[in-house]
Design a protein that fits this description.
The structure holds two protein chains of two kinds. Chain A is built from three helices and eight strands; from the N terminus they run αααββββββββ. By secondary structure, chain A is mainly beta. Chain A is extended. Chain B is of the alpha/beta class. Chain B has a domain of about 290 residues: Thiolase/Chalcone synthase (Peroxisomal Thiolase, Chain A, domain 1). In chain B, strand 5 and strand 6 form a beta hairpin. The longest helix of chain B has 16 residues. Chain B is globular and about 55 Å long. The chains are: A mainly beta, B alpha/beta.
Chain lengths: ~180, ~425
């Protein structure tokens, strides 16, 4: 044991490692293989989601009931995940809600810093229940300092001729003005 | 050891395309039917839920996150097994045998019509250094009538800009078939008879998608895809879902259900080295050995009354028959010729129509085959009923390019 104490360590206590750089790959300094898959899907949406998206195209937010669990569900689905029974009775909901939670996001998908942060969060749609019940979306016409949990918001829709049956037929949610 | 029973089965029809249904809907339909069949409420009576699914088929990373709602598993023990449905049955049985769970749901499905580039996903399962560069998709081998690729980009460039010398990854089945024909003295015509039999059986199965009255001549005249493999030797893809409910024997008795026991199961995997591994379905032999031992089966040919075995390609049924010990090497063709494997024969094989008649339902293949065994053992198989069936075997392979598979053996109580 005494001898071992005197031995110099054969490796550093802290090894920072060597980073692989994009240029190392480009210059073939390391061995690698490259593959770019061409994989495409087109998911059939089924009754419930098709009806919801058709509603968005018409400028409406649709919900569906589970009477057994006393839920008014949005986005609607064909069955209730709580009781496992089918849903029924479709209704149109007002396009207003409350910010349930949000984040001020500074990075784009490639982790680049963006100047104007994107406001994104979850909206509880007013007439849907129980809370929280709603969907995720962008926020606009408000600053990162104004946005807060509990803020009343309203959907801003794309013009009718630009709507295509997508969640992005709503551009964003804006603060609900006093007169609305 | 705790005995494990099948207490419920549920399934959708099998269809080449299902544009009216979301993938969640077909899972919900199969599971709901299985729970009604078993007489259980999933929100109260089922302890654990297993879905067998592969992310690439689904188009979701971490697909298990998308499973709970439609199988009734919200906030309950739930997981996915990335493999064929029979692997799910084995996992469920083990959960029950440990005493941790009493009732377990197992679901598997195919929504392959949502996948526009089936060939690319198969290709992506091949080794990227040695095997993938010699292969590449030329056309989607799903005959559902959907376009393979957008017209403006009919063939994607894969791997390199040179696509002239590439073949669809199904060529691997051509390699194996060539080997099978040579080593067993089987002919292409004899393989063609498998398609004739299974597509004929499918006429008697209301949920099958690819029933047809054909002769071996039809198969022989279908175009070569990967010689000796022809178009009609290949099982076409299909959408569908199957759900099983397994339970501890005592639960089955409490529910007053006539038990069908999961007597044995086994699974086995080959090396991924395509050019090194055997071409004689060693995975099937090994998984059967494990299952036979568990089920106390000593003479499979005498003790097994019927079997549903993997026939994703015609020669596979014959190859698997031999690997499972249900035929001697080189004799599978003789059993077929002599009518032994017909519904009215001594050892009916694929009375459901198999994958050639029902369709290739990817990871649901093993459950589709197990489903047929349960219907037969219950005496609920209608016009394709095998009389006095007591013991049935279901076997599935994981499909190209895998060398993995599983076996399940069921016995009427």
């Amino acid at each position: 044991m005494e001898n071992r104490k005197e031995e110099k360590p054969t490796y550093p206590k802290y090894a920072p490692g060597t980073h692989v750089r994009t240029s190392d790959i480009r210059d073939k300094k390391i061995t690698y293989t490259w593959w770019e898959p061409e994989i495409q899907y087109a998911w059939s949406l089924g009754n419930a989601m098709s009806k919801f998206l058709q509603g968005l195209k018409e400028g409406k937010i649709l919900g569906v009931h589970c009477h057994k669990c006393n839920r008014l569900i949005v986005p609607p689905r064909s069955f209730c995940e709580y009781c496992y029974g089918p849903t029924e009775d479709w209704v149109e909901l007002k396009d207003t809600g409350t910010i349930n939670t949000y984040s001020v996001s500074y990075l784009d998908p490639n982790a680049n810093r963006i100047e104007e942060p994107i406001l994104i969060g979850v909206i509880s749609i007013d007439e849907a229940y129980p809370k929280p019940m709603g969907f995720m979306h962008y926020f606009g016409e408000m600053s990162k300092d104004e946005i807060h949990i509990g803020m009343k918001v309203k959907a801003v829709w794309k013009p009718e001729d630009e709507r295509e049956g997508s969640i992005n037929d709503i551009k964003y949610f804006k603060p609900l003005g006093g007169g609305e | 050891m705790t005995k494990v029973c099948v207490i419920g089965i549920g399934f959708t029809n099998f269809n080449p395309i299902t544009p009216d249904m979301e993938w969640k809907d077909i899972m919900y339909e199969a599971c709901q039917k299985a729970y009604v069949d078993a007489g259980v409420d999933p929100r109260r009576d089922i302890d654990s839920f297993i879905t067998c699914a592969e992310d690439y088929w689904e188009g979701f990373s971490i697909f298990d996150e998308f499973v709970p709602d439609q199988v009734g598993a919200l906030l309950r023990p739930c997981c996915t097994v990335c493999g064929d449905g029979i692997y799910g049955l084995g996992n469920a049985a083990m959960q029950i045998q440990t005493g941790l769970m009493d009732v377990v749901s197992i679901e598997a499905h195919s929504k392959v019509s949502d996948l526009l580039t089936y060939g690319d996903v198969v290709l992506h399962a091949m080794d990227p250094i040695y095997d993938r560069p010699v292969s590449g998709p030329v056309e989607r081998p799903n005959y559902a009538g959907l376009p393979s690729y957008p017209e403006e980009n009919p063939k994607p460039l894969v791997g390199s800009s040179d696509e002239t010398d590439r073949v669809h990854p199904y060529f691997l089945a051509g390699l194996e078939m060539q080997h099978f024909l040579k080593t067993t003295g089987t002919t292409e015509e004899e393989c063609a008879e498998v398609a004739v039999k299974n597509k004929k059986n499918a006429f008697l199965n209301p949920y099958a998608a690819y029933e047809a009255k054909i002769s071996a001549d039809h198969v022989m005249k279908s175009e070569y895809c990967f010689k000796p493999l022809k178009r009609m030797d290949i099982s076409p893809n299909v959408d569908g879902a199957v759900c099983f409910v397994l339970a501890n024997e005592n639960i089955a008795k409490d529910l007053g259900i006539e038990p069908i026991y999961l007597e044995g199961f086994g699974w086995s995997s080959e090396t991924p080295w395509l050019s090194t591994r055997g071409m004689e379905a060693e995975y099937a032999r090994k998984s059967a050995e494990m299952a036979y031992k568990m089920a106390d089966i000593v003479q499979p040919t005498k003790e097994i009354d019927l079997a549903e075995i993997d026939d994703r390609f015609t020669y596979k049924e014959l190859q698997h028959l031999e690997a499972l010990g249900l035929a001697r090497k080189g004799e599978a063709k003789t059993l077929l010729k002599e009518g032994v494997t017909e519904i009215e024969g001594d050892l009916p094989i694929n009375p459901s129509g198999g994958s050639l008649g029902v369709g290739n339902c990817l990871e649901a293949t093993g459950l589709q085959k197990s489903l047929e065994i349960i219907m037969q053992l219950r005496g609920h198989a209608g016009k394709r009923q095998v009389p006095d069936a007591e013991v049935g075997l279901a076997q599935a392979w994981r499909g190209l390019p895998s060398g993995s598979g599983a076996v399940a053996i069921f016995r009427r109580g």
